[in-house]
Specification:
alpha/beta, TIM Barrel, seven-stranded parallel sheet, two-stranded parallel ribbon, 13 helices, 9 strands, 36% helix
Length: 380
């Protein structure tokens, strides 16, 4: 494939919003300094006695790299899951460890804000003011990067009513599951038939009371069906692709995509090559090493997903970027054209080559997420 060149005009005026950046994994769990330029982050040595970080050299994002790329906002994540019998995915063993680990990640985002590196956007007004600042800026150096706080897998919420505590701390978006079975629902790697766990409906009702946003990514088909029957508030899919384009349970079937489109959802399309490889993956037995090379997966597959959602919706108002940035082991797990998040800008050129209008391109790159959060974050 010919090299993609981003026009000077587009680079100066194209913003981005990333619908899925599990930033705290790199910043807390493996202790990367994400306040550094990307080359310095990549070249930092691992702390003596610290956790293994074999993918550090492929780190795709840091705050300076976000500024360089025009990434005005990211939906950042708290993610700690309990290891349960029968499901081998989980980082902690108990409720109190999940809660404490989640609070550690919350503290990471709070200190970045206190340092002036970022800005936690808790209300629609804060989001709108932040975007106005970025849209009017001649350059982004020194601007705080916006962050909406989400939780991927709800195990750190130890009982449903405890979600009020998390909301007061700034949490606005929750997915009930990740890999395996969470306290609240079946997730990826558990098949498509397992549904909500007994505490799940109660958590959804508490989220409704608070005006929170439900993320249906990483959730089994039956759990999503039940969630949408119970939950009355706004819905998004932070990092989700289409099963009709890439087979496998991690992606959504068309009927689910149509149903969340009817609810006004925005779908962030994931850069994870597992979710773009056309031969598919057995999500119940995910291989530790990808059974394909990075060079076998192109950003064209992202645009295929955008095309598919546009066909189902009849417009471009429901697709966006949902990078799973650095959540897929970094650049090694991203399409062949992607080294850092700056390369997400190439999606705009690919869409242009397929005949999309400028408004359609801007919808996908940032305006769909902007409209969604301005409409669905709390007013105060």
């Amino acid at each position: 494939m010919a090299e993609i060149h981003i026009s000077v005009k587009r680079r100066l005026h194209m913003l981005m919003i990333d619908g899925d950046y599990p930033m705290a994994f790199g910043g807390v769990v493996v202790e990367r300094d994400l306040t550094l330029p990307i080359d310095e982050t990549r070249s930092q040595s691992v702390m003596p006695g610290g956790p293994d970080d074999s993918t550090r050299s492929g780190t795709m994002a840091s705050i300076p790299e976000m500024r360089r790329s025009g990434m005005a906002v990211a939906l950042v994540k708290i993610n700690r899951c309990i290891l349960r019998d029968g499901h081998d995915h989980g980082e902690v063993r108990t409720d109190h460890h999940a809660y404490a680990a989640g609070k550690e990640q919350l503290g990471y985002y709070q200190i970045l804000e206190a340092m002036g590196e970022s800005r936690l956007l808790k209300t629609a007004g804060e989001f709108s003011a932040h975007m106005s600042e970025w849209e009017s800026a001649d350059g982004y150096d020194g601007l705080p990067v916006g962050m909406v706080l989400g939780m991927e897998g709800a195990d750190p919420i130890v009982w449903p009513e405890q979600v009020h505590e998390w909301y007061e701390a700034g949490l606005r978006v929750i997915s009930l599951s990740h890999y395996g079975v969470s306290r609240y629902s079946h997730g990826t790697g558990t098949g498509t038939d397992g549904g909500l766990m007994p505490p799940g409906p109660a958590l959804l009702r508490e989220m409704d009371k608070l005006g929170m946003i439900l993320d249906v990514s990483h959730t089994s088909d039956e759990s999503v069906r039940q969630e949408l029957d119970i939950f009355e508030g706004p819905v998004l899919a932070s990092h989700q692709n289409c099963r009709s384009v890439t087979p496998g349970e991690r992606q959504f079937p068309d009927h689910q995509i149509k149903r969340i489109i009817e609810r006004g959802a925005v779908i962030g399309h994931s850069m994870d090559t597992y979710m773009l490889w056309t031969k598919g993956v057995d999500w119940a037995n995910i291989p530790e090493r990808r059974p394909f090379s990075k060079d076998e997966v192109s950003l064209e597959r992202i645009v295929d997903n955008i095309d598919h959602v546009a066909q189902l919706a009849g417009n471009t108002l429901h697709s966006a970027i949902g990078g799973d940035t650095d959540g897929q082991s970094g650049a090694i797990g991203a399409p062949k054209e992607v080294d850092t998040i700056h390369d997400y800008l190439k999606i705009a050129d690919l869409m242009d080559r397929r005949g999309y209008k400028q408004d359609d391109i801007e919808n996908v790159m940032w305006r769909n997420w902007q409209r969604f959060f301005e409409a669905n974050l709390p007013s105060e």
